[in-house]
Amino acid sequence: MLIGCPAEIKNQEYRVGITPAAAQEAVANGHDVIIQKGAGAGAGFPDEEYTAAGARIVDTAEEIFATAEMVVKVKEPQPAERAQLRKDQILFTYLHLAPDAAQTADLLESGVTAIAYETVTDRMGGLPLLAPMSEVAGRLAPQVGSWTLQKANGGRGVLMGGVPGVAPAKVTVIGGGVVGTHAAKIAAGMGADVTVLDMSLPRMRYLDDVYGGTFKTRYASKGNTAELVAESDMVIGAVLIPGAAAPKLVSRAMLSTMKPGAAIVDVAIDQGGCFETSHATTHDDPIYEVDGIMHYCVANMPGAVARTSTIALGNVTMPFMIALANKGWKEACAADPHLMNGLNTHAGKLTYAAVGEALGLDYISTDEALKI
Length: 372
What we know:
It is built from 15 helices and 15 strands.
């Protein structure tokens, strides 16, 4: 199979879909790999490393979209890229379709077979291709939140760890999954007073057993959420419903109860965000203010640490990429129900229920898709 990897064109996105190690693995399996010139530069992978791995460098993304049987990316295809997708081509990347009607419509019109990293599952019910980026984003969230809290950025001017005689920042993390756990660990490590809200008692028992004394847990009732949001200097939104739009857990009315200059970091913004007042921003202009509360809602947070993120992502996507190339998407998905869960569109049909429900679109089962 001819596998292609274009350079990412989303604002300030420096990651790359295929590492030299993944290219070498694909070539060793008998496949051809083409990489757009300079695609890996932002992550510290020069073209020479790809050619040494057996890949071929091409000048333009147009050549990749026109010839590759499978296109491997990091972020969702942008409008100019979507216009080049075609039927009988595999797109393997993050999609986050539930809050993105325009992208969904374009993918359906193209007929492309789109497999989304964020909906591939594992035997434990986890999301293995989302997990490493969730870890990165979770660890970044307190870091960017502390920057947002600085007075020069419109924040309260509160230091995360305080100093002797001055209380540390109060941080609430909504969601105790991968993002929330990593965010809480880092925020607590910075010296903040951290509480994690979650609705799963087993998960809270786990967090208490493993991290008891590092941060606290509270049940995520409406009352507890409102109380902690009002008290916090920083609130980190870390809630995920696989493939679906994020629930709006903090209303605009709740902002009036927060301290002026408090910071919100919405890590769920890829799925529409879990704060009513959230809208996606970029690394160029990451912060905005609503009712005196500073919002950090960058949709590709891991892109800021492109090398770490690219290597972490490549470690988990490579085996699935090789399976798709070795077997073709139908055989690979039929043999692996967890990979099958990644199928979002095929031949003009939507194949992921949560996206259909979020956007009010008809959808078919993945079993039906296999027959098309």
